[in-house]
């Protein structure tokens, strides 16, 4: 029997539980935070059987809420030890709405895993689990929309799998944009160019996130299982040329790219692509593993070098993950970042963009001077051609150009002149 709460009772709840929805292959969850997620609210079988309606969804949310507030119920332990859980009055708890707050990992479209890459750090690759969409997701949104219970201002992670491979990718993207549901972040590997992504970027209606992970093609091939580095760079250049403010590029740290070759080549690649943000993320420690000290140190080093050379503060992709192991990672990362900042003195002139632009300016000036000098030489040679005596011509050139025109290996335009 469910415990009865009074309006003023202090209970534990979570904004993800009250308004979030994450679509996975096996059903719908409240949230997905890396290696941690809520208990399943609704199974894919329930969705496909036609049980899905407004009352059913609200009831499932309530069941999880009461489980969290029952110390003898361990089916929701994932939630009970999460830092996103908050205390509030029972009268302030509401399960009626879909959305209404910008919650990272609060809306995740991942009801399929079909992909055109085989990334070594991807759980779907490790489990060899690649499937097409298991159910239709837009009906879920329509249920709340018809009740007038859908709210904007959200954060939507459209991942997968590879979104650009979905047959109804355009339909889902257009739907979310049309109802003004919130910020849509499309996670694409960019092997396949999408005109829809380009158009949405051009209008600043989405954020595109791509894991680049290195600037070395051979290392990229090891990480991704196919030789597509040139394709993704080419497509990222096209997306960059859309003029978007929403190009976010990512570095997922694992053993294969935890080295200086990948780090510095990545920085140079970022200098060329000029993303609006850079995200840093460790390889997710599944199977009760923890993020290694080596990964923490590398993440901190990359973080500080991005600050130093690219003049931007990176984003910790895991910053909202509330499980204890992720809280520990955040603490270790911040400590390591502070240590690296002390090692590396940040000076305005010691900046890759500054140096790069300075070199370009100097190269442009050098080219201009060389062109001007060649014009002068050409005009002097034209004048010298009218001097009848070769010795006089050579003296004239030597004085005007300060060069020795009498050397036998020097080619002159008038050598055949008698």
Describe it.
This protein has 418 residues and is α/β, with parallel strands linked by helices. The chain is built from 15 helices and 14 strands. β12, α11 and β13 form a beta-alpha-beta unit. The N and C termini lie far apart (116 Å).
Described by its quaternary structure, the protein is single chain
Straight-line distance between termini: 116 Å
Please give the order of strands in the largest beta sheet. 6-3-2-8-9-10-11-12-13-14
Question: What's the helix-strand series?
Answer: EHEEEEEHHHEEHHEHEHEHHEHEHEHHH
Parts with pLDDT < 50 across at least 5 consecutive residues: 347-356, 404-418
Given the helix and strand composition, which structural class is it? alpha/beta
Q: Please describe the biggest sheet, giving its number of strands, its sense, and whether it closes into a barrel.
A: 10 strands, mixed
Write the SSE topology:
Elements: E1 10-13, H1 15-19, E2 21-24, E3 27-29, E4 32-33, E5 36-37, E6 42-43, H2 44-48, H3 54-68, H4 77-80, E7 86-89, E8 107-109, H5 123-126, H6 138-146, E9 154-158, H7 169-178, E10 182-187, H8 195-202, E11 206-211, H9 217-224, H10 229-240, E12 247-253, H11 260-273, E13 277-282, H12 293-310, E14 315-316, H13 324-343, H14 352-384, H15 390-401
Parallel strand pairs: 2-8, 8-9, 9-10, 10-11, 11-12, 12-13, 13-14
Antiparallel strand pairs: 1-7, 2-3, 3-6, 4-5
Helix pairs in contact: 11-12, 12-13, 14-15
